[in-house]
Amino acid sequence: MKKLFVVLLAVLMLCGCSRTKEYATHLDKVQAEGKVIIATEGMWEPWTYVDGEGNLTGYDVELGKKIAEKLGVEAEFVTGDFTGFLSGLDNGQYDLVINGIDVTDERKEKYDFSETYAYAVSYLIVKGDNEDIKSLEDLNGKKLTNSLGSSYANLGESYGATNVGGDTFADTINNLLNGYADASINSADTYGLYIKEHPDADVKVVATIDPLDVAIPFVKGEYNDSFREAVNEVIREMKASGELSALSVQFFGTDITVK
Predict the structure, then answer these.
(1) Residue 162 lies in a domain
(2) Which spans in 178-221 are helix H?
(3) pLDDT in tens, 221-253
(4) Which residues pair with 162 in a beta bridge?
(5) Containing domain of residue 86, as a range?
(6) Is residue 162 within a helix (H) or strand (E), and if so which, with residue range?
(7) What whole-number distance in Å separates Cα of residue 18 and Cα of residue 78?
């Protein structure tokens, strides 16, 4: 009986190994499988969203397609809440997470990042009649509405705010308008697009936050080194050819690939 238990345990351990261990490197895996699995929200225009014809698009999505094309593989997108994206990257569920991810000191402790492909200016946003919050320092003791685990949430919490969540940009605005939260930190470009479509929205910008580098995270380790370098080469080529700037102008109306 003991011998049988040991055999079964060995089988379970073998089955439990990540399928990524079948390959010497992550790049080998992607090329052997002929696809790159990319996680993106699909609800954050103009970074990643579904257009009026039901197509997934946006700056991040089109970048992901270009990366796959230049690597000679298919792009397979998985959409969902940002909250689980980095843990999915950790366990090999996704090959890439392309979702306007800011490079922060905290994230750099765990992840290596690709070359910067955008610079994101952010706004501190409140309801139109809010006179209590005029800067990040005023967030102490206030309620923030942002995606759990996002750099925006982490930034607000570092100033003493309590984050009540908000899966999409629309959720965060609704939370402000309905009084569920006092403030939100969000992309200036996304906010500008929202105001263009909702000019009478009862929200306002009270502070501008300096641009942060936006890049693609990779789990640290030799397994990902060649894959990261292959992605970096694509980004460098797109910068040199003007493709990256053209994508930015297409979706943002301006070039966010330069500060």
Answers:
(1) yes
(2) 188-197
(3) 999 999 999 999 999 999 999 999 999 999 998
(4) 143
(5) 18-117+215-252
(6) strand 162-163
(7) 19
